[in-house]
Sequence to fold (341 residues):
Amino acid sequence: MKTKIVKINSLAHDLDKIRYVADVIKGGGLAVLPTETVYGIAANAFDSAAVSKIFEVKGRPHDNPLIVHIADLSEISLLVSDFPENAGNLAKNFWPGPLTIILNKAEAVPDAVSAGLNTVAIRMPLHPVIRSIIGQSGVPLAAPSANLSGKPSPTAVRHCIDDLYGKVDVIVDGGFSDIGIESTVVSLDSLPPKILRPGIITLEQLQSVIGEVRFDKSVTSNIPVTERTSSPGMKYKHYAPNAKIILVHGSFQKFARFVSNKSGATALVFDGEEKKLMIPCVSYGVMHNAFTQSKRLFSTLRELDELGAQTVYARVPEPRGAGLAVYNRLLRAAGFDEIYL
Ligand code: TXA
Ligand code: MG
Fold:
């Protein structure tokens, strides 16, 4: 398939390109689009055949449901069977933005989207490009992250081209993703509500709006692929570069001593630490600053492959607040391989 690459700089000047991409979607095609979290691979959520193509192209397991993206709250009535008060409060506080809410689905949502569950994941993104394409196409968009299944999510158009060129109709270049990791996923299907996937919007932020919220056990533990779980996406190996990653807990001093005799290994460290180590290093953000880490983590994981790294020892972010989301992604990239010094 011939993939068209379209760069959208400004909504006002690039209306023709927005219309072109919206036509691709309306015609049952696939479009890779920028969002503020990571790039997504999008299709008309009501078009089962188009949605099935997403699974095929990504090599995504069929029991892993997709997020439906809307641009306006009025679109939600077609997608959910009820919209409880706490969902309204979350929407008011965090939409548009990096929060996905799991709700009971309306019949019109195809099984291909919800992977046969009776719930559907909804997000209203903030990025102006995807918002205006939803508006122009007039349909909600089913869109998982635009990586091949198992690879780190794409935070730059280059990553999308590497994974999906020739497999989708159009790839829209909207620059680097602002946040760099995927949205927080919260399920209102359970009491108390549960975070199925941590993100930049934290447990504490959600609690300040709707009261008690808990983490699903899959957030920090390894769920067997065969297990039925409320969070299907969390049981698969994810975000994994080709290199073997091992998370190393403990102070920088201990880390430095530990890796000093690991010849042939690479260190994944915080900014500035690379100067103090003798083995090859790649840094992924400022220590104690989860926002810089989330922005760079996935591109750094891809960079490790480009460098041909085989074994990577990684410094671990503080697993609190937004740092927990970075830790969650690293833990999966490492296949839950951790060392405590
Ligand atoms: O930031 C994001 O969320 C990005 C951008 C493109 O919006 N999208 C994204 O989609 O990360 P994806 O498909 O890579 O991850 C969706 C996650 C998966 O873990 C999936 O299992 C979960 O949401 N999910 C979707 N529908 C669900 C449902 N009905 N119940 C439970 N989990 C669901
Ligand atoms: Mg994904």
